[in-house]
């Protein structure tokens, strides 16, 4: 299978190594020629959780210069880069018959998927931890699952069934909204807390005061999203912090490197839903403005 991965961040590089390990023909579509050239020269190198390192013969191209007709197109750019990607997916014939898979934080992008012409559109979440070391190197910092569901069309179970033999742990779900809400709750707790206090994910579990704040954010997110049974989900949030204990969240890395964060797509999305429902989320509002104050 030909697989195009749009986005050369930590998740894009990690997925490139995963798919390549399973024998797929992978091309990473990047925003910069510098990164595309680095991948062409060196492939993609991934250091596993156990510390072993392997380099994969992955191709690369600038996003708007990619010429193949991929069977699968995995979109893993940040939310604020999606409009430019949508424009390419709408206008380019090479993506028309491709199955699209969107992996983003937050839920703000889901409603806009209806504007795309492709017949098969999936959306999902990735629970693995990853750290981008350079333009072509990534460190796999925590194991997890990849959960996906169909937004339009169907899921090729034969294809995804072959993907579970290595690093992958694929879980196909019937309801898209359930996995997206689950991921949004995790992100609304972990990302802003680690960013505001400049700590690793595991510190939320280790520090009793951060754990209290995490529970307050968790309860507000579950309340506004209409999630009833929360015990298992709260334990899931804590497990994510344990599994990725040494990770610095993507939002924290954005703050440290002076980039725009995804706070609008996470806490901002929750505040928008709360406003529509006439609900108040004081802790979420505080942490939202705290992150906005740190942005460039």
Automatic annotation (TrEMBL):
Gene3D superfamilies with a match to the protein in the record: N-(1-d-carboxylethyl)-l-norvaline Dehydrogenase, domain 2 (1.10.1040.10), NAD(P)-binding Rossmann-like Domain (3.40.50.720)
Superkingdom of origin organism: Bacteria
One family name in Pfam for this protein: ApbA_C
Cellular component terms per the entry's GO annotation: cytoplasm
E.C. designation(s): 1.1.1.169
Pathway stated in the Swiss-Prot or TrEMBL entry: Cofactor biosynthesis; (R)-pantothenate biosynthesis; (R)-pantoate from 3-methyl-2-oxobutanoate: step 2/2
One GO MF term attached to the UniProt entry: 2-dehydropantoate 2-reductase activity
Keywords (A to Z) from UniProt: NADP, Oxidoreductase, Pantothenate biosynthesis
Catalytic reactions on record: (R)-pantoate + NADP(+) = 2-dehydropantoate + NADPH + H(+)
Family from the record: Belongs to the ketopantoate reductase family.
Name of the molecule in the record: 2-dehydropantoate 2-reductase
Organism listed in the record: Fictibacillus marinisediminis
């Amino acid at each position: 299978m030909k697989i195009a991965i749009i986005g050369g961040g930590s998740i894009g590089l990690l997925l490139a190594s995963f798919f390549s390990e399973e024998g797929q023909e992978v091309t990473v579509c990047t925003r910069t020629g510098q990164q595309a050239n680095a991948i062409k020269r060196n492939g993609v190198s991934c250091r596993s959780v156990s510390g072993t390192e392997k380099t994969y013969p992955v191709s690369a191209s600038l996003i708007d210069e990619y010429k193949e007709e991929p069977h699968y197109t995995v979109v893993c750019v940040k939310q604020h880069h999606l409009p430019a990607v949508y424009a390419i997916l709408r206008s380019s014939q090479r993506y028309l018959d491709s199955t699209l898979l969107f992996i983003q934080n937050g839920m703000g992008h889901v409603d806009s998927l209806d504007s795309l012409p492709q017949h098969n559109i999936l959306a999902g979440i990735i629970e693995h931890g990853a750290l981008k070391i350079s333009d072509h190197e990534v460190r796999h910092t925590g194991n997890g699952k990849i959960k996906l569901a169909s937004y339009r069309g169907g899921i090729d179970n034969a294809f995804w069934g072959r993907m579970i033999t290595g690093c992958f742990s694929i879980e196909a779900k019937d309801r898209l909204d359930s996995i997206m809400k689950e991921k949004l709750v995790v992100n609304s707790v972990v990302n802003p807390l680690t960013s505001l206090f400049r700590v690793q994910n595991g510190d939320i579990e280790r520090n009793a005061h951060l754990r209290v704040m995490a529970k307050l954010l968790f309860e507000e997110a579950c309340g506004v999203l209409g999630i009833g049974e929360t015990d298992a989900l709260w334990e899931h949030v804590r497990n994510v912090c344990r599994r990725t204990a040494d990770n610095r969240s993507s939002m924290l890395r954005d703050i440290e490197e002076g980039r725009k964060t995804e706070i609008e797509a996470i806490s901002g999305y929750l505040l928008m839903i709360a406003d529509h429902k006439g609900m108040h989320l004081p802790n979420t509002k505080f942490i939202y403005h705290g992150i906005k104050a740190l942005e460039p």
